[in-house]
Amino acid sequence: MPRFVLGASSGVMPRGTTKAFRTVLAWQIGWTASSSVMFGIALGVHGAASAALGGAIGIAGGLVFAWLASRSRALTADGVLLAALRAEAAKMLVAFGLLVVVLAGYRDAVVVGLIGSFIVSILIFGFAFFVRDA
């Protein structure tokens, strides 16, 4: 049975969860920086900016998820599942809303860099499940 501790805010989260989110956030930031450099070298300033924006959108979605998950006070399995589904829905709404805003507002966006960096950033967030409490 998992032991519970107070999370980042007022919610209750399994021990090590905030560490997992911090670790994955660091990986997302590292990916965003490296993809910006790669796309910048290959496609110039707009490639770098597009990759940075794509990664930042994935990071923003992950932060929304972590914030909502940390605020959950659910103690039953169905309550935890419902809270996780709400947090995931909010993450998707934020991410796709920001994608629409960037694609509509940044005329020189390099779509391959933007979408590619975004997808990898979102996939990295899924690795939080595999981060162990050390």
Account of the protein in words:
- This protein has 134 residues and is mainly alpha-helical.
- The chain has one domain (14-130).
- Helices cover 73% and strands 4% of the residues.
- The longest helix is centred in the C-terminal third of the chain and has 29 residues, at 77-105.
- The chain is elongated, with a radius of gyration of 16 Å.
- The two termini are 17 Å apart.
- The model is unreliable at 1-13 (pLDDT under 50).
Keywords:
mainly alpha, disordered N terminus, elongated, two-stranded antiparallel ribbon, single chain, 73% helix, 134 residues
Tell me the number of helical segments per DSSP (H or I, 4 or more residues long).
4
Q: Biggest sheet, in brief?
A: 2 strands, antiparallel
**What topology, given as strand order, has the largest sheet?**
1-2
Helix content: over 70%
Brief account:
This protein is mostly helical. The chain is built from 4 helices and 2 strands.
Give a topology summary.
Blueprint: E1 4-6, E2 12-14, H1 17-43, H2 45-71, H3 77-105, H4 111-125
Antiparallel strand pairs: 1-2
